[in-house]
Amino acid sequence: MNLTQALEEYLGYLAVERGSAENTIESYGRDLRRYVAFLSDRGIEAVDGPQRMDIEEHLAALQDLGLAPASVQRAASAIKGFHRFMVGEQICESHPAADVMLPKKPDRLPDVLSHEQVFALLDEPFRPELEPSPRTLKSGKVDVRGQACFHRDKAILEVLYGCGLRVSELCGLDLRDVVFEQEVVRVMGKGLKERVVPILGTAAAALRAYLDDWRPILSGSGRENSAVFLNVRGGRITRQAVHGICETYGGIVGIKGLHPHTLRHTYATHMLEGGMDLRTVQELLGHASISTTQLYTHVDRTHVRMAYLQAHPRARTGASRFEED
């Protein structure tokens, strides 16, 4: 077995045995095919051929190409996992990536909306007078799908912020996952790990209104009837469409380039600001490690400062009693 064959074995293992997300498999496959091509250019095709120096030079070459530190780190992780798999499956004996240091990924604080921006995004574009009017088709039939999409978009934005979902999780929601009686949605996260997230307030109201009154209009000619969020043709909505929805409505209220993940970041930050403990936020977000969730504790220094001022008995004291006269 050569490296190319071993790579296909590894990607199959990620898909079938590890249950990795499709996007993860695509990213790892892209990184590892580039790695195998780099080795092939050096005449290395045997599974026991790569050495630590080869891996370090490949990562250095990626940095020279201008790849972001996060992309280089992901490539290094993919390479480590690939070699670990080959040793574990007895495809080869050597593990040259074992001692390779992962490139340091600089801390990058996520973009977060203010409370005022969130309220503007979820309310202003959806005022009743802005609802599209029904269209009369040449056949004489009245088409209200524009109105249905209007209410669907409202529900999408409310659920993204109200439940802190990843865009892939939102697109993957099925009707059976929404349990209004228990005020929860069941979410299939990364690695096919299911979690239960509360849905309350305006998010629950917008989703219920869409499901009761508007989704049936979109599903009229659709073949797939299990998805919660449908496109205008009745099929499951795509991630690209949700990205477009966020950008469109963000632009209406002056938030340029709004990304669905920004609403997830904002959800986490506002929960912590409201007093929710870190472990609970970790559970709601579906983070495997609390270190990922801890990033949100550094987002809003103003909030931390205000909490300190309110809590510390001497924070507002202007001078020490030991200060000289």
Automatic annotation (TrEMBL):
Top-rank taxon: Bacteria
PROSITE patterns named in the record: CB, TYR_RECOMBINASE
Gene Ontology CC: cytoplasm
First-listed, main subcellular location of the protein, grouped into a coarse class: cytoplasm
Localization per Swiss-Prot or TrEMBL: Cytoplasm
Keywords on record: Cell cycle, Cell division, Chromosome partition, Cytoplasm, DNA integration, DNA recombination, DNA-binding
Stretches assigned to the Core-binding (CB) domain: 1-87
GO MF annotations, alphabetized: DNA binding; tyrosine-based site-specific recombinase activity
GO biological process: cell division; chromosome segregation; DNA transposition
InterPro entries, sorted: CB, DNA_brk_join_enz, Integrase-like_cat_sf, Integrase_catalytic, Integrase_recombinase_N, Integrase_SAM-like_N, Tyrosine_recombinase_XerC/XerD, Tyrosine_recombinase_XerCD
Residue numbers annotated as active site: 166, 190, 261, 264, 287, 296 (o-(3'-phospho-dna)-tyrosine intermediate)
Domain (Tyr recombinase): residue spans on this chain: 108-309
Protein task: Site-specific tyrosine recombinase, which acts by catalyzing the cutting and rejoining of the recombining DNA molecules. The XerC-XerD complex is essential to convert dimers of the bacterial chromosome into monomers to permit their segregation at cell division. It also contributes to the segregational stability of plasmids.
Similarity comment text for this entry: Belongs to the 'phage' integrase family. XerC subfamily.
Subunit structure: Forms a cyclic heterotetrameric complex composed of two molecules of XerC and two molecules of XerD.
Name assigned to this protein: Tyrosine recombinase XerC
Species: Parafannyhessea umbonata
